[in-house]
Design a protein that fits this description.
This protein is mainly beta. The chain has 1 helix and 14 strands. It has a single domain, classed as Agglutinin, subunit A, CATH 2.90.10. This is Aste57867_22758 protein.
């Protein structure tokens, strides 16, 4: 039991010293707010990576339970990606409909999840990949990405 405690204590202490990738200047951060940074309807988060030459995008969790990335240029907003969470979800033979009560959470383990009515209805399936802490931000090509503390991409929006 003492050995197990020492192993856990060592893992936690080495993770505590980690810092975010230098490109994590905005977006969602994994170790924020006791359990991960989150978006709830109708909030949005600006995503500006200094490497993208000032491209301005924002991620939002909408009242229709959809998680969307918008481009904002010349005064117009245009959706460039969404999690398709606006459709009905089939989980355990029940249908989860649009409630506006869900949230997107960047978890401490590196997994980005969409939770509606206390159920995960969408996820990046990136738990424990790379080295934490993690952030959700923009890539140099303005795609939504999750970066680990070494600035390695552990997930990116699929190409259209």
């Amino acid at each position: 039991m003492l050995i197990a405690f020492l192993l856990v204590a060592t893992a936690v202490s080495s993770a505590v010293g980690q810092t975010y990738c230098h490109r994590c200047t905005g977006g969602l951060l994994s170790n924020a707010n006791d359990g991960g940074d989150r978006l709830q309807a109708p909030t949005r988060r600006m995503l500006v990576d200094p490497w993208t030459q000032g491209s301005l995008r924002y991620a939002t969790y909408q009242r229709d339970d959809n998680f969307v990335l918008y481009s904002f240029s010349t005064g117009h907003r245009m959706p460039v990606w969404d999690a398709k969470s606006w459709s009905a979800w089939y989980t355990d033979a029940s249908i989860l409909r649009q409630t506006g009560q869900g949230q997107v959470i960047m978890q401490g383990d590196g997994n980005l999840v969409l939770v509606v009515l206390d159920r995960v209805v969408w996820s990046t399936e990136t738990s424990m990949r790379g080295v934490g802490p993690y952030c959700l931000t923009l890539s140099m090509s303005c795609h939504l990405v999750i970066l680990d503390s070494d600035c390695k991409t552990i997930w990116s929006v699929p190409s259209p």
